[in-house]
Design a protein that fits this description.
The complex is a heterodimer. By secondary structure, chain A is mostly helical. Chain A contains 15 helices and no strands. In chain B, strand 1 and strand 2 form a beta hairpin. In chain B, 33% of the residues are buried. The chains are: A mainly alpha, B mainly alpha.
Chain lengths: 341, 243
């Protein structure tokens, strides 16, 4: 015979109200140690009361109120571990390079789209000068026709302003490239191809007017890394699109979440590189006193460093782990480790 | 209403009520207004410091320009994620509307989830005013916009629910009469007693009479007629009956 509802509430109500009051305090500030201890105790008791209400008083307002009380307490008590520094270090030492290597199909496809665009743009301007030149923006055409680089404007404004503008502009491009995967890949593909065509057309147009060396000099320092990060963001967008178009044996929702997490890790992991290269673009690229060869060399070195890191980083450790997984004890330990994390 | 079922380490199943499109849109408006207000305040503070604001902006020093761009970047991208990570899934607007972002297991979002759902605002906003996000939320079943689908997050209601007021019943120990009522019947009587003072007297008498007939069926007819004669006695009987 269950306890009558009125008696149950009369007996337990004070605890529930105390718990609710503690949650309000927690939201507007910190709890003292005794308060934390009573929060723990009160939450466990409320959870036990909820279990009982589900059985004996299902569907009543008391059941609903208890459920909501426990849900609010649960969200404030259970949080993911705050070991951010260790997570971050592991991510950059091992996980990000491994991620790029594991998803190399998408990286290659993304690079093919961008460079295919470059080829199309360059060929269009070279083969059909009258029509192809329409691909080049008006302002760029005007200054190139006058034998001027439009990028000279950059060297007139203060570099710290240019740096912040470039950094946020590049980040926006990367965000749109990645999130455009949600439009079944249309957004990603169009950003990659459009930027490629633009770059190819501008380069061919400059070449016709004999300005190609100056263009290379300008984009040489930051171009390799910047284009690489855009290719990686494109790869992440294509991963999302692939999950949407072909979810395999799972539901679209489940596949999208799984692949979306990996794609987002790729994009967010590369964002700092993009911010750093924004500094190079603002300070080094427009600097007239630096010789062009130096800028080109620096750009090539930065690009090589990025790809060396992505292709080789953490590889020795991964192979060691693979070799060690042959022994059953280590494999079991690794499995337990992965279920715990 | 849609709900999210989760299992807690205490071995109790919780179900969280999901926030709908209307609540979410209101929370967004509150956030947008807050950010706008922050810009207005920043403008007025600046105009106190500098007498000629326009001239000051035209003569932009590099540092001010950089600060301006950083400010736009902060309000466009960083504000949302920073708030959600720091305050358990709540921006100012969500806090005002009493909703929060939650993972599929009901816990607050981490940095990755929050960053993903907020970066996707760029797509959800398309072609204007979150049209794509609204359409997705309408068909996704859990009111998730694209960013939520990608991050695996939902918005749940976080408001406290009021407990029914059991003080309206007689104190425990006063002898109840008749066979015990089910919890649902107790709450029926309770909600009547709670609201009875606000009812029109005639309506109150009629409802009380119905409840008396239903829950006093075990009484002899004469006793029931005696209780029905006085409204106070009827209420008192119901009060004792549900205790």
């Amino acid at each position: 015979m269950p306890e009558p509802l009125a008696a149950f509430v009369a007996r337990r109500r004070a605890d529930w109200e105390a718990l609710s009051a503690l949650l309000e305090t927690l939201d507007s500030g910190r709890l003292s140690l005794p308060d934390v201890e009573s929060l723990d105790r009160l939450y466990r008791r409320a959870a036990a009361d909820l279990a009982r209400a589900q059985l004996e008083y299902a569907g009543t307002d008391v059941h609903r109120a208890l459920n909501q009380l426990c849900a609010r307490a649960y969200a404030r008590i259970y949080r993911s571990p705050r070991d951010r520094a260790a997570q971050l270090s592991r991510f950059y030492r091992r996980e990000l390079p491994a991620l790029v290597r594991a998803e190399r199909r998408f990286v290659l496809a993304s690079a093919a789209l961008l460079w295919g665009g470059v080829a199309v743009g360059a060929l269009a301007v070279a083969a059909q000068p009258a029509g192809g030149e329409r691909l080049v923006p008006e302002a760029v055409r005007q200054s190139v026709d006058e034998g001027q680089m439009w990028t000279d404007v950059l060297s007139l404004s203060p570099p710290e302003a240019v740096a912040s503008r470039i950094a946020t502009n590049n980040l926006s491009v990367v965000v749109v490239t990645f999130a455009g995967g949600l439009l079944f890949g249309l957004g990603t593909v169009s950003v990659l191809a459009f930027n490629g065509v633009m770059l190819g057309a501008v380069a061919a147009y400059c070449a016709r007017h004999g300005l190609l060396p100056r263009l290379l000099e300008f984009i040489g320092a930051h171009g390799p890394v910047e284009l690489s990060v855009i290719v990686l963001a494109g790869a992440a967008g294509l991963m999302v699109a692939d999950a949407l178009v072909d979810p395999g044996e799972r539901t679209r929702r489940a596949r999208l979440q799984e692949r979306g997490r990996r794609g987002a890790a790729l994009v967010l992991g590369c964002a700092p590189f993009l911010a750093l290269i924004g500094l190079v673009e603002a300070y080094v690229s427009p600097a007239a006193f630096l010789p062009g060869a130096l800028k080109l060399g620096a750009g090539a070195a930065l690009g090589a460093a990025l790809w060396g890191y992505l292709l080789l980083g953490g590889r020795a450790r991964a192979e060691a782990a693979r070799a060690a997984s042959g022994s059953p004890a280590r494999a079991r330990a690794a499995r337990e480790d992965s279920t715990r994390s | 209403m849609d709900r999210l079922d989760i299992a807690t380490p205490e071995r109790v199943a919780l179900d969280l009520p999901l926030a709908g499109i209307g609540t979410r849109a209101l929370a967004y408006l509150v956030d947008a207004l807050a950010l706008f207000a922050a810009w207005v305040v920043a403008y007025f503070v600046l105009s106190l410091l500098v007498s000629d604001v326009l001239g000051f902006f035209q003569g932009f020093s590099g540092l001010v320009q950089a600060l301006l761009v950083a400010g736009v970047f902060l309000t466009q991208w960083v504000y949302w994620t920073a708030c959600e990570v720091a305050f358990g899934g709540k921006t100012l607007g969500k806090r005002a509307l009493r909703i929060r972002v939650a993972r599929a297991d009901g816990s607050p979002p981490g940095l990755l989830e929050s960053a993903v759902r907020n970066l996707c605002r760029a797509i959800d906003f398309l072609p204007a005013l979150y049209f794509l996000g609204l359409m997705t939320a309408l068909v996704s079943g859990r009111s998730q916009r694209l960013g939520d689908l990608l991050a695996g997050t939902v918005l749940v209601r976080d408001a406290p629910l009021a407990l029914p007021r059991f003080e309206a019943l007689a104190p425990a120990g006063s002898a109840p009469s008749g066979p015990p009522l089910s919890p649902a019947q107790v709450e029926l009587v309770l909600s009547f007693l709670e609201r009875a003072p606000g009812f029109d007297p005639e309506a109150r008498r009629r409802l009380a009479r119905k409840l008396l007939d239903r829950f006093g069926a075990h009484l002899p007819d004469a006793e029931r007629a005696r209780l029905a004669a006085s409204p106070a006695a009827t209420l008192d009987f119901l009060r004792r009956r549900a205790s």
